[in-house]
Amino acid sequence: MAAGPRATADTAPAAGAGEVEGEHIKPFTPEKAKEIIMSLQQPAIFCNMAVDWPAQHWTAEHLSEVLHGKQIRFRMGMKRTDTAPQFETTCGYVEATLEEFLTWNCDQSPLSGPFRDYDHSKFWAYADYKYFVSLFDDKTDIFEGVIWSDFGFPGRNGRESTLWIGSMGAHTPCHLDSYGCNLVFQVQGRKRWHLFPPEDTPFLYPTRIPYEESSVFSKINVVNPDLKRFPRFCKARRHMVTLNPGQVLFVPRHWWHYVESIDPVTVSINSWIELVEETSHEVNCRYLNRAVSALFDYYRTSKVVEIQALRTNREHMKKEGLNVHNHMEMEQTGGQDLSLGVVKQEAASLFGPDLVPVILTSEELPSKTGSIFEGDGKDFVGEDGEHSGKLHCTKRQRMMSKSEDASVEQNASNSNVAPSQTLISTDDLLDCLLNPQVTRIVAQLLIQGRSLWF
Questions:
Q1: Of 4, 6, 33, which Cα lies nearest the Cα of 183?
Q2: Are strands 248-251 and 162-167 parallel, antiparallel or unpaired?
């Protein structure tokens, strides 16, 4: 999904509105760009947003002059297509300057120097995760060459960025970042991104080995998967995009990605943005209170539905009373060994597990006038010629009806227990989080959840 000026011409400032003639007008204002980032649930490419950044000229050759003589750590991997991911723990490492890297990358395999043990035709090199604050510690003015404030993050520049320089074939294994979203500015060369949505996590066989605090890795080499070993991967939904120089890629939170360099030299600049940090504690508390209030509303609504179901079931039970009577008559005729458990089971099969008759049956035992479970198996005829067995059933229904009315009223009363407005404070949160029982529960969940990663 590419975001370009044609699709968003209405968001650009009007000509002459504070713009110098000939100055590039970006397709999105910082406010609009941030609004897009905050609302997007899938990756997107921003075009024409960094054409005036000084960083657009930071090719590997230019950076080798800026960092003249500075040692950089390169990760060395094999140019091969087996089914196992090349994790950082299985790679070799080299300390070298950018000049030495460029010489080696020109297929001039040196007989000496840091790359002497790595044949360029068989290996790739990757200077990844290079933090600006460490790399340019004596050239802090270079931070201003990256202008993330154009995306609605005031004051964010190269200081909060990392530099990535690689040769063809250099890549990062498929992983998700455990916090924040990504903005990636492609400076030189092209990179191919393989992305998978967070919902596909079960299909990517996540693992915390090798352990990295900010990353969760996939056990799969997504460009050459072993489907016999990882059959669920065939259900994963792959999103592929080639990022070209001058473009900025937005990767939403917890999207899986595998990134590979497909040109002889690639340079990109990355910034992780934790969107939660943009929200104040007060706003978070308001969200929490709304969530709790919504839960109470759901609780009250569920109780109303439950009460309505009880009343409906009671009416249904009255209509089916004759069937109940006949069923009990058969049990009486068959002998006196009818137990309370059998009555509960039969009532449950007729009316469902939420009906009260099972409970009320136990309340009616024993009866002053003789229970329907007692006697010689014959019905008694009263003065009006009506069978007493049927009379007992009618009385039973009336008692059940009264008991259900009481239960309904009790449920209605309970449904009003929840407060109409909840107020959760910072102290409430701390009391909850520091509670020893909460700590114990969290520890148990962590232990139980380990199967998700192994």
A1: 33
A2: unpaired
The 3-state DSSP class for residue 59 equals coil
Q: CB of 118 within 8 A of CB of 125?
A: yes
How far is the C-alpha of 82 from the C-alpha of 221, rounded, in Å? 8
C-alpha of 156 from chain center: 26
Cα 414 to Cα 298, 331, 356, 405: the distances in Å are: 14, 38, 17, 14
Tell me the pLDDT tens digit for each residue of 386-434: 444 444 444 444 554 555 455 444 544 444 444 445 577 777 777 677 6
Residue 19: DSSP 8-state:
P
CB atoms within 10 A of CB 284: 13
- For 172, phi then psi, to 5°, come to -110, 135
- In angstroms, rounded to a whole number, what is the distance separating the alpha carbons of residues 181 and 255? 9
* Closest to 187 in 3D by CA, of 54, 48, 56, 45: 56
**Nearest of 98, 236, 115 to residue 164 by alpha carbon:** 98
- Amino acid symbol at 208: R
Question: What is the tens place of the pLDDT at every residue in 54-90?
Answer: 999 999 999 999 999 999 999 999 998 789 999 999 9
Closest CA to 88 of 177, 215, 202, 276: 215
Please state whether the peptide bond connecting residue 210 to the residue before it is cis, i.e. omega within 30 degrees of 0.
yes
Selection from 162, 156, 114, 155 nearest residue 136 by Cα: 162
pTM: 0.60
- Angle at the Cα of 49 (from 45 to 55), degrees rounded to 5? 105
